[in-house]
Amino acid sequence: MATLSVTEDCEQLRKAFAGWGTNEGLIISILAHRNAAQIKSIRQTYAQTYGEDLLKDLNKELSNDFERVVLLWTLDPAERDAFLANEATKRWTSSNQVLVEIACTRTSQQLLLAKQAYHARFKRSLEEDVAYHTSGDFRKLLVPLVGTYRYEGEEVNMTLAKSEAKILHEKISEKAYNHEDVIRILATRSKAQINATLNHYKNEFGNDINKDLKTDPKDEFLAILRATVKCLTRPEKYFEKVLRLAINKRGTDEGALTRVVTTRAEIDMKIIKEEYHKRNSVTLDHAIGKDTTGDYEKMLLALIGHGDA
Amino acid sequence: MDPPNDFEALTKAFSGFGVDEDSMVSILGKWHSEHLESFRKRTPKFFLEDERLFERWDDHHIACLTKEFLRFKDIVVQWIMHPWERDARLVHEAISKGPQAYGLLIEIACTRSSEELLGARKAYQSLFDQSIEDVASRLEGIERKLLVALVSSYRYEGLRVNEGIARSEAMTLAIAVKNVDKKNPIEDDAIVRILTTRSKLHLKAVVKYYKEIYGKNIDEDLDTLMSLKETLQCLCNPQAYFSKVLNNAFKDDADENTKEALTRVIMTRSNVDMKEIIEEFDKQYKVPLTQKIEDVALGNYKDFLVSLIRRVA
């Protein structure tokens, strides 16, 4: 039984598509201010009332960046991750980062739901597509990363942290970045354990592990390893950097901007905004306002203000 | 009282899977110390003449007997246990036993459904505060890559199969098999990828295309590569795999690990495909499974096994 407000939302959205052109403002004012559970309700009621999938109607009516941000936002979080992951497997190496992001910044449960959504939508498993579309060192790292069901407890084994910090340091010094121990530690250990290991790494060997992994700034595998470490240990800093690079690029990398905003709006956007402000002396709102326009800008701003409502 | 027959009967009550509780009670209940002494003196299989002039029970045999008495307890406890916990405990045991038990890891990773395997991974975390893949990645030997990937799999279970890809993957397998002298297929990235990520239906299609293109069953070509052969068999034809495991348990020279399979298979497949396994066993070994169990199992253990099988037969 749909609540009055859900029914109203559906009517308004339907109206937004009616006639010539589309009332994007109306779409933003509704969708940007609903959370995932509410959007799910709206989609169900819309389908029951009008016999069509809201997403299909959005697809038909909207274009480009604005469409994409609305579409991604309207998808259920698990479907969204499945959609982004599938897209990433089809592109080339620069999209490996998206896979790392999904595999490492989601909780074990969220990643599992994404994999189930992937089965349902693409009739294959995420693991088989990642394995099929990657090769060499990237496959060696990415398949275990997406396949893992990480333990999420807080317990830490300090002896193990010390010995694994040593192993990591050894392999990195030998430039054996793709060594199976390096991959094993990053892909299977709990986040708490990895944090302890890397803290010990810094105390014992003097540098942050990512500093030691920066020996060749052009090496793409090293870049992915650094991203893996950052996603596992400091996701808010990782996302701040992605946003910063996306906005400062000549033109803007709308893909990355849209992706981070829609996937983190309900999770940790507040912290990411603080991190952004700290790092860049301007607010994220300001930076987005300067670099984007129109309905795309309006939707993004509404979404990053989402948690504050 | 008929000493020679009773001695034989008592010996028999100890000699099989489980123990014949009823016979023991009825025979031993009647015996006095002279009968016991006589039994000990006349049964060199169990009792050794000690230098200090008494008949001493062979330690090894006491250990075996303990296992046989416990077989009933094991099957009762495991039967009641949640399947996730059961599988998690089996995996934990297999990992601690080392390479001889890796077949068990393959069995669990490949014959359970995606949700059952995931459940086992969850239970493992609850029971042992680590993830299975974490522990598995510290296994020894060249099978490690395969095993870790197998226990981490979360396979698609729908009906869609891409026939074109299945066909080309059959060819990939053939190439790896042909190059076995240069590189063990188990270390071939493509082989591991195909076996550990593709859906079971897809793999069945791969096997079908292999036969079509090369005229042979792939397991003939994998004969020397046991882990790969078992992996494929568990994924594509679990009934044949389980029927073979059961038959091995019945062999005279079977060790304890092999014998434990009798409990494990009946229990874990009872609600899944026991009927098909019984048919396969019959076809392969020309003797009904229930018959075989009646021959080698004893007492409460036997009764429990038979009742589990009768439910589906």
TrEMBL record, chain A:
It comes from the Eukaryota. Keywords: Annexin, Calcium, Calcium/phospholipid-binding, Metal-binding, Repeat. It holds the Pfam family Annexin. The keyword Metal-binding applies. Ca(2+) 2 binds at residue 297. PROSITE patterns: ANNEXIN_1 (PS00223), ANNEXIN_2 (PS51897). InterPro entries: Annexin (IPR001464), Annexin_repeat (IPR018502), Annexin_repeat_CS (IPR018252), Annexin_sf (IPR037104), AnnexinD_plant (IPR009118). SUPFAM superfamilies: Annexin. One of its GO terms (biological process) is response to water deprivation. GO terms for cellular component: cytoplasm; plasma membrane. Gene3D superfamilies: Annexin (1.10.220.10). One of its GO terms (molecular function) is calcium ion binding. Belongs to the annexin family. A pair of annexin repeats may form one binding site for calcium and phospholipid. This is Annexin. It comes from Vitis vinifera (Grape).
From TrEMBL, chain B:
The keyword Repeat applies. InterPro entries: Annexin, Annexin_repeat, Annexin_sf. Keywords: Annexin, Repeat. Pfam families: Annexin (PF00191). PANTHER family: ANNEXIN, ANNEXIN D4. This is Annexin D4. It comes from Vitis vinifera.
